[in-house]
Amino acid sequence: MKLSCIHASAMACLMIPLLVASNANGYDVVIYGGTSAGIVAGVQAKSMGKTVVVIEPTQRVGGLTTGGLGQTDIGNKQVIGGLSRLFYGRVAAHYAKPDHWKWQERSQYRSGGQSRTDKSEAAMWTFEPSAALKIYRDWIAETGLEIVKGERLNRESGIVKEDASIVSIEMEAGRKFVGKMFIDATYEGDLMAAAGVSYTVGREANSQYGETLNGVQTQRARHHNFVDGVDPFRIQGDPQSGLLPFIDPDGPGEEHGADKRVQAYCFRMCLTDHPENQIAFDKPSGYDESWYELLLRDFEAGATAIPWSNSGMPNRKTDVNNNKGYSTDFIGQNYDYPDASYEVRQAIVARHLLYQRGLMWTLANHPRVPAHVRNEVSRWGMCKDEFTDGNGWQQQLYIREARRMVSRFVMTQRHCQQVESVSDSIGMGAYTMDSHNVQRYVTADGKVKNEGDVQVGGFPPYPISYRSIIPKRSEADNLLVPVCLSASHMAFGSIRMEPVFMVLGQSAATAACHAIDDQVTVQAVDYEKLQSRLAADGQILQYQSPARPANTIAVGTIKGIVVDDSQAILKGDWQSGNLGGAIHQGYRHDSAAGDGRAKATFQAKLPHPGRYEVQVAYTPNPNRATNTPIDVTHSLGTTRVVVNQRTKPEVDRLFSSVGQYAFGKTGVVTIANQATDGYVIIDAVRWIPSTRN
Question: What's the mean per-residue pLDDT of the chain?
Answer without folding.
Answer: 92
